[in-house]
Amino acid sequence: MKRPTSGEPWTLLIPKNTGVGGVVGGGQGARGLLNHAVLGYVVNPSNPPPTPPITLAGTPLLFTTDRDGVLVNGVRVVGKEYKFSDGVVYILESPLPIVEATNNNNNKNNKNASPTQTPTQPETSTVTTTRVPPLTHRFSRFKSSRGGGDVRRPDPNTRSSRLASRPVLQPVLGDEPLTLAEADGFQETEFPGETVAGSGSGAPFEELEGSAVPPVREDQPFLQSFLSYMEEGTADEGAEFLHHFKNANITHRFRGTGRYTALVPSDAAFYSYYPIDWGFNPFLVQNFTRDVLADHFIRGNINLADLPSLAELTTLGGKTIKFTRKRNKLLANGVEVTLESEVPLSRGRVYTINQLLFVDNDRVFELQAQYGDLETAPLLGNPWPASQFLSHLLGWTEEEPRTSHFAEYLNLTNLAYLVPGHDENLDPLKYTAFIPTDEAVRGYLYADAPDPFLLDMTLRNHLVLGHLVPGRLYNTHLTSGTTLTSLDNTTLIVTHDKDGEVLVGGARVLGKQTFLYNLGNVFLIDHILGITDQDILKTINKYPSQPFSGSIQEGEKGTIFPQVDAPEPVPAPTTLPPQRPTTTTTTRPTLPHQPLTFPPTPTTSTTTTPPPPSPTSPRIRFETRTEISISRRVNDGALEPLDNSS
């Protein structure tokens, strides 16, 4: 081939001012300028030469047209042309890429070939040495003609010619590529003017245009390329997304030959839903997390910069994302897509967004009500820091109007050392509480007799421990025949009656479980477990000093609130002399329902008595307690004092 000289016809392709930096910069230098000059041709885009002209940098030029105008290697020609006597100048929207295309056989046979040009039959190449400017990289790979010789380009102006010579077809959307068909000519992904499925409005858009990024090899699945990119740490955002993606196990939804576009939320998007110290983390719900992650992958390798307004695309999870434009910004369901963050991958690409899709506070509140057992409990400093379950159970029973009696008994106990929050390996321990209602407790109390659970600490501890079971149980666990063991070693057998009601130790379970944060669950029952009427009678008769008439025998149970006869009316005297008020003494003192208090230890220092609280001073419900284990559990649930000598 004769080396071209300055006297030959020429064609200049000059980028606009906004794209000049990509020609002289980016490592291209003078070669980038030569890549926009052609000698030997005055190219007419509407009737290009049969053999694609080659720039002085060795890049073959492919001219195509669509309804919006002329494209050269995918870069749009803008403005009007400037003709001269021996050449022509065209203005481009952005710079042309430099394509490395070599043919060793032709170079050997043609010693006079120009060092700046490459043969017209380039070999297939999927790797480039420079960053490719916008609207170009789908034309940067060419396929050799099987018959050898010059590579011919059919007339792009006729639809029949394009269909007849259609080369290898790589679809934009879908999980699998279409059937491959080779023909003489260049490899092309998409023809201008064709509508891409899934674009919503039906307007055509180019699938691989508009990104100043290099072409990538497509010799590996998208998922492998995506994970490699995220794990390399080159992404500024996406650490939280990658963390949840690895734990969600949704890789089976991706096909090896499928093409996908990922919208990766920023780390701050996840942080906005994380609890700080305690609270509900929605991403602990596995099904929810899997669906959210899948809905951030779009089926198809889509260039979002070219999407028409109101386009709708389908996610991997089956939901629809509606894209709109507002003030030159692309919004996906109202969330801004950072187009500048585009990174091409094998069989796809990835973008960054600043919020999560399909997640809002209303959805999180619904999950919290449904999965309250995943909510982290706030740390309570009293009454029992070593047993967060008991501390929160006390607060729950006090707020529940049907469990005031059990709350009073629990408040008088000191059993935190038997209900720890962690085992020896610091693994958290969970519990289940079966709480009798107030009506069930009243059925065990006698008229004109003190409350035995307030009188005797052993009976009270037996009551509390007998209603606590190790492990967190749900309704599904209460199957007929299941055997449970309470903390005082009482065996509880689960049965079902003819109506399908669940009974635990003979007590009917009232409704479903209530989540006590992530510490355990609570059930309401209509009967007291592990305590008989004989236990109640023994306790009452053990305290004869308590004011009530005679001893109580089994079967003498009366109402908890005995009837009191109204006093006969006494006529008031006409005159009353001044008298000092007298204190009326009843035959039965008030029951000791308040926590026991102990006198302070005498000290040598002089202390002053604090002033009484004002009516507006807050009430302190609990006292500071020192928990010292001086007893141990035995098989029957009683507490046996330890021998100090041992």
UniProtKB/TrEMBL annotation:
Gene3D superfamilies: FAS1 domain (2.30.180.10). SUPFAM superfamilies: FAS1 domain (SSF82153). Residues 1-96, 210-357, 390-529 form the FAS1 domain. Residues 102-173, 191-214, 561-646 are annotated as: Disordered. This is FAS1 domain-containing protein. Residues 103-136, 581-596 have a biased composition (Low complexity). Residues 568-580 have a biased composition (Pro residues).
